[in-house]
């Protein structure tokens, strides 16, 4: 039996509503997370500027949450995605020494046995099926992950340090949509993991989360890279992405000992037909020069006509450098992390 993790006392985010009085979202990169989305008040319109129907307002809104914990010897990851017609989730544990991946997944049509968080600072996202369950709960600036299955169980708390600087931004998506994203890497991890009923120590592990919601493109795709780890005694983390939030700003940023640094746009170079070959991530200005070497892959393909997904998430190691705006350099020398290539029609 895994003991429940109690969140520490963390400062609550200042009230901040995304949808403004005019029915439109506030756009930009924010210093603090959004505490209330206000989706019901969004003035959603068709491409011909007519008010969208109630069905369209419901069906076109998407939300997904993802939590990962990285250790030099292993990676734990879990996700819940609500695309209205379907709520899906997965969790896995990748063991580097044995190159093994233990996982379970959940699918619930029309969101049965599921719930999504009201915002990135409050509420609960959960998905259950049989004896398996995933629960992700924001607790102010901390995040709790609880997993239950026959082979993989966890109760973990991801907490920031004294400096709390998540990435939070909202940008226009397509002609009439928007996407709000909140992410934070290199978070301290406490709690318990059991793999095959054996305890796994979380010492030396760091974690990160991803909360994304909005009216996204009907067909969308993204490339993504993530790291939470140590460089000597320094905690480092980064989030690099291409494909969704790119209108006037990007999701690209780096954390060093909890302090956030924004990064420029990044090119992802890899070969989908040769998935085991290294990825190259570079910025035009040269500030980001990274290589990702895949070691394991979680893949899922689904083609139902109206709905389709080609999902590939890789566990592997990061190598190279990131040069920050103040001239400081971050060195990646094989720390464990993730990369992802995803197409979705939803």
From TrEMBL:
InterPro entries with a match to the protein in the record: DUF2804
Pfam families from the UniProt entry: DUF2804
Name of the molecule in the record: DUF2804 domain-containing protein
